[in-house]
Amino acid sequence: MGHRSLTPLFLPRSPPTLAVVFQSMSRSDRRALAWVAAAILVITAVGLSFGVRTYHMLLDEAFRERSTAYAQAFAASASAWVDPVEASMLQAAARFLLVGSALYVEVVHAGETVIAERDERIVVLDPPPTDAVSTITVAQTRTPGGPAYLDIVVPLMSWDGEDGYVRVGIDRTSVVTRSRNATLAVVGGGLAIDAALIALVIWILAGRRRSARDLDARGPADARVVVGDLEIDRARKEVRLRGASVRLTPKQYALLSALAQEPERVFSERELVDEVWTDSPYADAKDVKQCVYLVRKRLAAVDPPARGLIVTVPGFGYRLVVRTDGGDDPELTGA
Amino acid sequence: MNKMKETMLLLIVIALTIGAAAPAVADERPVEERLTMLAGRLRLGLSVASIAIYSPTVVDLHLHAQQLVNLLEGIDGRHYVRSAESQEDGPGVMPEMIVLATRFADPSFVSEFRGQIVAAGKNVRVFLDFALDAALSTLAQRRLDDGIREMLRVYAYLASAYETPCAAPRVPALWTILRAFGVVEPEQAEDAARSPVG
């Protein structure tokens, strides 16, 4: 008993899964699929890499700009309140900042530190710049074991004209987390789209083969294939041998029609399975062998020597030989 | 037994009477002191609002908005959230303004500008109400840009409540554009030195 005998015959068949469709694909189609899949994956990898990097860069740049503006706005407050009379207001504003992303706030005026508020997460703070600050500087840094942050130094334009600066550290954790989450989402989405595309390609390739076969089976109205004495009328689904009708089942017709596509070419059993048993993922060489036997029998019923029209090529498959009426083909007697 | 109940009831009534009378005792600070403190807290609020407009993240914006709500409503406010408090949280600007407005309206308050003061007090309260609404609306925004729009409203209302430019940073607007084009007079330009883009 073969494998097929174990298949329940009367149970409704579910639609073939992608794996089954893949199994039923020819080798050339699988090769094409492999190339397409590789191309899709490469394009995705390059696209994602570029996209993620660009997104990360834009996000980082936007965060840097906003953080700098944030520090500048505080510096504007500081310049108004650096007067000792207003020191408590400056202190209050600095503490309001520290509740959020600001890790530390320093205000240095006329060489003296007016405000030095620091978040407890910052263990070690680099020494402040000793030179007079004339331009805004932004540096990306990280304390050992602490969060990554932007160190922003803004010159202080105080009411009394004395030099000074405001230094604010802005925690970058949020932007790093956001960037990482976006990367994971985009990579996940990209891979999902790839999987969908590859599945689509599998269906397209399988569908193309089905369409080709359907078209072939349907054929144009005047499609007639003549191979020697054998004539196949695809419009009428008729086979004639030396003018006499040969009665074939649809599978037998499909097998003969497939072989008649390229007379004299050897078709492997796998190819014939792919061509003829499109609706059955479980068909195998035994089905081909049995079908060939039955076609030969039907041909022989019309013309006994025609049994040899389908030649078995051991180890390779089957081919349809061209025999014309009255011609001598030694193979016909030896098949 | 009944006597014991009566005694307990009496004690409760006494305790409630003392409790109700306590805030009235705390309200005895001079008006000038209260006004100075109110102005300082309003300036602080203006400063926070002007910085919050540049918040690098929506989380920061929400924190600043909550700080402003706390600042406006005070520790007894409906929307006060302890997590956003700073060490500077004290009595709210709005309750303080209510107390002051009540005093202005009291017949015992005598001033040649009484009418103007009472009207101004009402205006301040309305502007503070608007600012609170805008701050609460900022908290409801999920996008940074939308939140900043609301925070600009907070700033505008607080600035209106203060009425005149004060020692707090200004949010760049038309004045900045005028200065950039040199349309303003040199002496006027000095007045704009506190603009963040100065």
Give a nutshell description of this structure.
Chain A has eight helices and eleven strands.
Strand elements of chain A, count: 11
How many domains of chain A? The number is: 2
Let me know the average pLDDT of chain A. Answer: 80
The CATH topology of the largest domain in chain A is Beta-Lactamase
CATH top level assignment of the largest domain in chain A: Alpha Beta
Most extensive interface: A-B, 30 and 31 residues
Mean pLDDT of chain B: 81
How far from one another are the termini of chain B?
78 Å
Secondary structure class of chain B reads: mainly alpha
Number of helices of chain A: 8
Percent of residues of chain A in helical segments? 40-55%
- Outline of chain B: flat
Low-confidence stretches of chain B: 20-25, 194-198
The CATH superfamily of the largest domain in chain A appears as PAS domain
Largest sheet of chain B: none
Strand arrangement, largest sheet of chain A? 2-1-5-4-3
Assembly of the depicted chains: heterodimer
Major sheet characteristics of chain A: 5 strands, antiparallel
Helix content bin of chain B: 55-70%
**Number of helical segments with 4 or more residues of chain B:** 8
Low-confidence stretches of chain A: 1-13, 326-335
Architecture blueprint of SSEs:
The complex is a heterodimer of chains A (335) and B (198).
Chain A: H1 18-23, H2 27-81, H3 87-98, E1 102-109, E2 112-118, E3 137-142, E4 148-155, E5 164-171, H4 173-218, E6 224-227, E7 230-233, E8 238-241, E9 244-246, H5 250-261, H6 269-276, H7 285-302, E10 310-313, E11 317-320, H8 330-334
Antiparallel strand pairs in A: 1-2, 1-5, 3-4, 4-5, 6-7, 7-8, 8-9, 10-11
Chain B: H1 2-26, H2 31-52, H3 58-73, H4 93-105, H5 114-140, H6 144-162, H7 174-180, H8 186-191
Describe this structure in words.
With 335 residues, chain A is an alpha+beta fold. Chain A folds into two domains: 15-210, Beta-Lactamase (2-Layer Sandwich); 224-320, Winged helix-like DNA-binding domain superfamily/Winged helix DNA-binding domain (Arc Repressor Mutant, subunit A). Chain A contains eight helices and eleven strands. In chain A, strands 2-1-5-4-3 form a five-stranded antiparallel beta sheet. Chain A has a four-stranded antiparallel beta sheet with strand order 6-7-8-9, with helices on one face. In chain A, α2 (27-81) runs antiparallel to α3 (87-98), α5 crosses α7 (285-302) and α6 (269-276) packs across α7 (285-302). The longest helix of chain A is centred in the N-terminal third of the chain and has 55 residues, at 27-81. Chain B is flat. The longest helix of chain B has 27 residues, at 114-140. Chain B is 68% helix and 0% strand. By secondary structure, chain B is mostly helical. The A-B interface holds A 63, 66-67, 69-70, 72-77, 79-81, 86, 89, 91-93, 95-101, 157, 170, 174-175 and B 40, 43-44, 47-48, 50-51, 53-57, 59-60, 63-64, 67, 84, 86-88, 167-170, 193-198.
